[in-house]
Amino acid sequence: MNRLLPRWFAHRGGGLLAPENTLAGIRLAARMGFRAVEFDVMLSGDGTPILIHDETLARTTNGLGRVGETPDDRLFALDAGWGESIPRFVDAANLCRELGLLANVEIKPTLGQEIETAERVAKLTVDLWQGAPVPPLLSSFSLPALEVARDLAPGIARGVLFEAVPTDWLAEIKRLGAFSLHCDADFLAEDILAEARANAVPVLCYTVNRENEAKKLFARGVSALFTDRLDLFAESAINA
Q1: Pairing state of beta strands 49-51 and 36-43?
Q2: Domain count of the chain?
Q3: What is the CATH number for 147?
Q4: Is there a domain that residue 35 lies in?
Q5: What is the mean pLDDT of each run of 10 residues along the chain (240 residues)?
Q6: What DSSP line would sit under 49-107, residue for residue?
Q7: Which of 69, 137, 142, 191 has the fewest CB neighbours in a 10 Å radius?
Q8: Alpha-carbon span 107 to 114, nearest angstrom
Q9: Annotated active-site positions, please?
Q10: Measured between alpha carbons, how far is 92 from 128 in angstroms, rounded to an integer?
Q11: Domain membership of residue 169 as a residue range
Q12: Could you tell me the pTM of the whole model?
C-alpha cells in the first residue's frame, strides 16, 4: 500500500465542488486528477450500505429523519444535490474501480450499529475489490468496527481515525494490525510524528484546505492529506 499511497485524498468525494458523498463528486475528483477519494459508509434502515456522513438526512439531502430508520425506497428517492441520489456503497466501489481511484472507505456506524455496519462493509469491500489493481483503505473512528474489519477483511489495509491522538495510539495500531494513522491536522504533535516515522506508520491528516498548512505538514513528514479544496490542490494531486 505504501508505494501506492497518493499524497492527496478528495474529502467526501468531491470536496466543496460537488455534493458530498455522491457519485458526481467521485467523478469530479477523478476528472481533476485526484487519484484517491474518501467517503463515508453507513447502513440504511434496511441495512444497505450507503454513502452519507450524518446520522440524519437534513443537511445533505431534501429529506428528514434518521438514516438508520429510513427504508431504501425513501432514501433513494431523495435528492443529495445536483439531482444525485444517495449512492449505494456497491455503486461507489464499482465507480472507483472503473476510474482507477484509491478509495478510503470510512466505516461510519450509527450509535449501536458498530459491529453490524463493520461486518457488512468489510465483507462487501473484500468482494467488491477482489483482484483490483488499486486496493482500498478501510478506516474508522470506531475501534470495535476496526476489530471486525481486521477479522473479516485481513487483506484490506486499515487506518485508525482519531481526532486528538491518544498516548497509546501505537499500541492500538499494532493491536488492530492497522496500516496508517489518520488524525486532525490541528492536533498532530511532533512526538506523534516522530513515533510514527520510527515505526514506519504513514500519517494522514484531515481536513487541509490552505496551501501554507499543506506545505508545513508535508515538510514535517505527513504522508497524505484530505482536502475539500480540490480546486486549490488539483495540480499538486496530479504531480504527486
Answers
A1: antiparallel
A2: 1
A3: 3.20.20.190
A4: yes
A5: 82 97 99 98 99 98 98 99 98 99 98 96 99 98 98 99 95 98 97 97 98 98 98 88
A6: EEE-SSSBSTTTSS--SBGGGS-HHHHTTS--STTPPPPBHHHHHHHHHHHTPEEEEEE
A7: 191
A8: 9
A9: 11, 53
A10: 10
A11: 2-54+88-239
A12: 0.97
